[in-house]
Amino acid sequence: MRLSVAVLALLGAAGLAGACMKTPTESSASLVGVWGSATAGLAVTDTGGTLRILSSGTCYGSYADVTGPVPAPTFDVAGTFTQLTGAFPGKIQYAAQLSGEVARDSLVLTVLVPALQQTLGPYRLARGVGNSWTACAFP
């Protein structure tokens, strides 16, 4: 009887220890990969990411870049917002702040561009959805 009580106590302690061990969850999720929707596409690597925002048809007219790791499950990182133009030099760049939150295979992302007094998004992106848009060729 003592042996079975000791075994049960040991198994119970092992179960509690296992419950306290960190397992892969949303908090350790990685953003690395492609994310997309009908209006935006995000590609993230270990060293940064680029968000392309659909303009019209099948081309993007603006994008946001982050140089450096993008942490998960939540992030608020500095980046650059770029608008493509039809005049030299072809683009205008602004400082931007990208923030978002990942939950499983969904990502909600917002881009704040203080110089334009504009917030873009929120974009609701799904993991694994890639977009093959090209840059818009403005006249």
Instruction: Give the ordered list of helices and strands.
Output: HEEEEEEEEE
Mean pLDDT value: 82
Structural class: mainly beta
Strand arrangement across the biggest beta sheet: 1-2-3-4-5-6-7-8
Number of strands: 9
Distance between the termini: 87 Å
Structure summary:
It contains one helix and nine strands, in the order H-E-E-E-E-E-E-E-E-E. The protein is mainly β and 139 residues long. The chain starts with a helix and ends with a strand.
Descriptive account of the structure:
The chain has 139 residues and is mainly β. It has one domain (25-135). The chain has 1 helix and 9 strands, in the order H-E-E-E-E-E-E-E-E-E. The protein is globular and about 40 Å long.
Descriptive labels:
139 residues; mainly beta; eight-stranded antiparallel barrel; globular; disordered N terminus
SSE topology sketch:
Layout: H1 2-20, E1 33-36, E2 40-45, E3 48-56, E4 59-67, E5 74-84, E6 91-103, E7 106-113, E8 118-127, E9 134-135
Parallel strand pairs: 4-9
Antiparallel strand pairs: 1-2, 1-8, 2-3, 3-4, 4-5, 5-6, 6-7, 7-8
